[in-house]
Amino acid sequence: RVALGAAVSAAFVPGSLLLYALVAILVAIARAVLDRGGRALQGLVSAGIGLALAWVLLLPWSTTWFAPGGVMNRLLGDDTAPLFAASFRGHGMASTLLGQTPDGPPLFGLALPLLGLVAVLVGEGSRRRMALALWSVVVTSGIVVELISTGVLRPIVAAPTEAGVLASLAFAGLAGLAIGAFRLDLRRKALGWQHALTIGVLGISLFLAVTGLGPTTLAGGWDPGRTSGGIEAPVVQQVSSLLDAEAQQIGEFRALWVGDTWLPDEPSALRPPGEHFITGARSSLLTDLFQPATGPGETRLRRVIWSIESGETDRGGRLLGAFNVHFVIVERGPDARGWLAQRDLAVIRTEPTYHVLRNQLELPRAAVFDELPAYARALDEGPGALAEVGEEEVEPVAELRSEGAAGPFRGRAAGPGVVFLAQARHPQWEARAGEERLGRVDSGWGNAFALPAGDATVEVWFASSPLRYVWYGSLVFMWLVVIGAAAPRRARRRRT
Predict the structure, then answer these.
(1) Partners of 441 in the β-ladder
(2) How far apart are CA 486 and CA 37, in angstroms?
(3) CA 227, CA 233: separation in Å to the nearest integer?
(4) If DSSP codes are grouped into helix, strand and coil, which group holds residue 223?
(5) Which of 78, 368, 439, 483 has its CA at 20 to 30 Å from residue 260's CA atom?
(6) Segment holding 359, helix H or strand E
(7) Phi, psi (5° rounding) for residue 199?
């Protein structure tokens, strides 16, 4: 059960595995102090095995976490760590113990530690031991938040909300233990100060919960699950509908979103920090969160964006075309001036909060050219080369089509020429004309292949190793085994 729950959690918050490990260590220490029966080490070993198995269930993605561009590498990197640590300002041990981390209605948060106090003072036996263990979880979460907010520890999770999830679960357990202690343990005690204190604290907690949740929720002041900082969901839906309609007409393409209002309220290690991100033709999908870093492609794209926003070039459409970017959605404001000054980006829609620009010189995702476009080569030749790209327009000899963004891409073309695929360079991308395999040519960030003379059907595909499917099948089997092992089972009664 630990493996299954931790694997699902780490799929969205990889650093949660480290947080769980810290909590397991502290809970084991607390249990060793309270219960000298020797079960503390057994519990710690079981938790460690469960967390290790959770990491295995997320293979092969989990092997990339600490690699350059991986999610944990972003959290701990010299350049990116301060961006994540900034969101922890104002949070610490005190805010965690008082139920203010993660963010929620303040009065409701204050009711949680009061209920936890009842669980410890009134509960007896296993209920009190469980209450102390849950308090150790809250304390551990508070220590982690305090260390990150003061700069002693680099962020292991992206935001205080993620760090406070365990504390919230612990407080929920303490609330249940408090009710159990009130109903089961208090009746066995002689009438006295404990009854008065318990009833008084429960009454205050109920008052705080009602006054905290009621008006705040009815007034719409508390909006859990909100994912967009300054842009409302209907606005995003407008742009998504526009992109979807275009995709039905022209096929797959990419869209570039510029501006911090398109990003979530809190940073996420799954989404690289910055004021832009790139998606497919149907806006941002859940699968976009799990895309690995594109390496040289991501670096070249940032260089192009800088050249546009700094005014180094006014032909950004040509440069973005090499990335198959057909549309740019820009937040309105002073930072939009560089984008509006581009001669090959046409404004097709203007709203109070954003502009939609269409690339006048976009390239298909996969196409055949007489020669590799100059602006595709310029991406690899340094910032100065971007400003020197000529005015020539490059038309593809033939476009290779695909039913999905991942290929395979097929089309009829006549050589000689160059096949260019606007996907991050990877040795497993292969191409052929008829039955002849095509050799690679230098193409900067993308994939290019030399097409010989003659007319043939050209195909570009990602060659997966058969071992890849064996591995994926093994992972599915492992998930089924873990789910089956975690399912509750009824003990069979022996017949006498």
Answers:
(1) 448
(2) 26
(3) 9
(4) coil
(5) 78
(6) strand 354-359
(7) -65, -40
* Positive/negative CA dihedral, 271, 272, 277, 278: negative
For residues 156 and 145, give the distance between their C-alpha atoms in angstroms, rounded to a whole number.
10
The candidate with the shortest Cα–Cα distance to 346, out of 335, 362, 332, is 362
Among 98, 82, 210, 96, residue whose Cα is nearest residue 143? 96
The CA distance from 355 to 214, in Å, is 39
- Closest by CA position to 85, among listed 20, 175, 145: 145
At 417, is the secondary structure helix, strand, or coil? strand
Alpha-carbon torsion angle 89, 95, 100, 102, nearest 10:
50
Distance linking the first and last C-alpha atoms of the chain: 33
Q: Which residue is associated with the tokens 């003061």? A: 150
The closest of 118, 172, 148, 175 to 22, measured between CA atoms, is 148
Nearest to 131 by CA among 116, 142, 141, 143: 116
Amino acid occupying residue 434: G
